Please model this.
Amino acid sequence: MENTKRNIHRIDKLIDAAGDIASVNTPPFFKDKVLVRLGQIQEGIQPAQPVLHWFSPKFQAIALLVFVMLNIGALLYYKKDLKAQEVQTFAEIYGFSASEETSILN
Amino acid sequence: MEEHQFLSDLKAQKREAYALLLDQYEQVVFNTCLSFVPNIEDAEDIAQEVFVEIYTSISKFKGNAKLSTWIYRITVNKCLEFIRKRNTKKRFGFMQSLSGTGMPIDKTSYFTEFNHPGIQMEQKEQRATLFAAINQLPEAQKVVFTLHKIDGLSYKEVSTITGKSIPSVESSLFRARKNLKQVLTRYYKKEEG
Model:
């Protein structure tokens, strides 16, 4: 109960004090920066954009998805290949391999 | 006559006219931006956008309202645009989907970080909570509360800028205060619990 009362008082005080903010001066060179930008607009110069500006979070997510899928694909393919190789090695060790029978050395 | 000439110079995109405009309004625009977005870098970017918008659309200014009112409207719209973008980014953010939405007030929702030079260090934490709570208000209430309570404009000025009647402004302000109390009560309850 006391906590609730304290909170109500705290909230009222916080809301009432919302305007107790000192006026802030504009950052240095603000005016110059704006005037340069306006001059660029007048001359039709577009502000320089970063090289990969088009690579938005949407594209980043798609690229990540493609990367993950490629990796999963490669891993599955590698596992399948490894299994076949293991069977082949096993067959060769125990002499079940057909390739051994057709070898010119035999 | 002088104001008419000044407007003509602005419409003619004369550099000297814009230098004068900046002298007159840079402080007001920047401080209003800070009232909506309490981060000095974000506010500077928005304030720059405001002057660019003034420059590109001054031809549309018919003089029905005062120039200062028109500039205020652009400033408010630019701030809301920024907040909307930030809120959307946050909503669709990757981390958001991982962490869920458990907190009633997310203090990182629409400004890079709380950095308002006009607020004393010891009040920073409380004010950050208040600004985050204001962000939860419906847009109309947010605008009225910010312009009147934070920016210190009168009902009449707020009414002219928003295009609403004075009773409507008062009513929005009343509802804003009520909603803020609810949001903050939930927040402090959670903080204690």
Summary: Chain B has a mean pLDDT of 86.
